[in-house]
Amino acid sequence: MSGGLDAFxxxxxxxxxxxxxxxxxxxxxxxxxxxxxxxxxxxxxxxxTASDLSIARRDFPEHPVTEYLNSxxxxxHVVLHRGPAPRLTAVLxxxxxxxxxxxxxxxxxxLASLGCLLAGTFAGWLAYALRxxxxxxxxxxxxxxxxxxxAPQVSIPQPLLAAPSIFxxxxxxxxxxxxLGLCLGLPTALLLxxxxxxxGTLGAAVHSGGYDYAFWSLIAAHGVLELxxxxxxxxxxxxxxxxxxxxxxxxxxxxxxxxxxxxxGLFLATVVLLVVAGCLEAFVSPSGLxxxxxIGIGLTVGAAFYSWLLLGGRERRAARSLxxxxxxxxx
Length: 331
Prior knowledge:
By secondary structure, the chain is mostly helical. The protein folds into two domains: 2-81; 90-311, no CATH class. It has 14 helices and no strands. The protein has helices at 2-10, 13-28, 36-59, 64-81, 91-105, 107-130, 135-138, 141-149, 159-179, 186-209, 212-245, 252-272, 274-284, 291-311.
């Protein structure tokens, strides 16, 4: 075993050292400036090191050389497969087309996230309707006092001061939904269910008091966009959790890294729109506008949001020519 190990290391040590030196050099610079033959040499060293790592894992799984090769291969993999440095000029094209494409590619996770929210909403509504004895625990008594005096009101005397706190709160909720996906996605699903539960119990309480229009018009302006973005954040968290639960043929680390690349851009692009939702919540929802106008604003913003997600980035198909084929020239 010792002789075989020594021969294995001696015959490959120079190659490993060369790959390590080139990797460190590339980590400090850019691959775009390398000559074609240097790139080919680096790729060849990378592939041969991958083969050496497979042999080491089979024949010397407990030896430090295997750990060394695993680290070297991982560092080279990151350098070889890293994308171009982000540029500000690429932000608008990504926002216009890249993010909607990511949404459509991960639509299944969005539906799963929406299902968790709706399940919680339905359960909360049923709990309030079927257990009158627990209504005081499900919904604060202060809400009933406000409904007894009239329509529920939200008082924001200084919207300019309230807006930043609303932004921060909404972003915190979205970030928590996303990050909890690292716990196999289960806390993300539970958080979505709890938010739906709160919405369901509150909606049932409002309905029992006969204040549906006043309440929903109060939250419609910001609620459509805000809840949609929270659901997308939940979808991003579920995508991370699924990558850990079902890595396929890849390691869980590689699967998680791929999921992060697939979903992070969409998460960041939509979270930026929470600023819009926060402005609506701070300035429009508590304003003196008629309820119908607030509902109309919410539906318009929601329609624009989903039009962007569903239609953005779709390539236009060239129109097919309907002109008849030219007649053959007689001989």
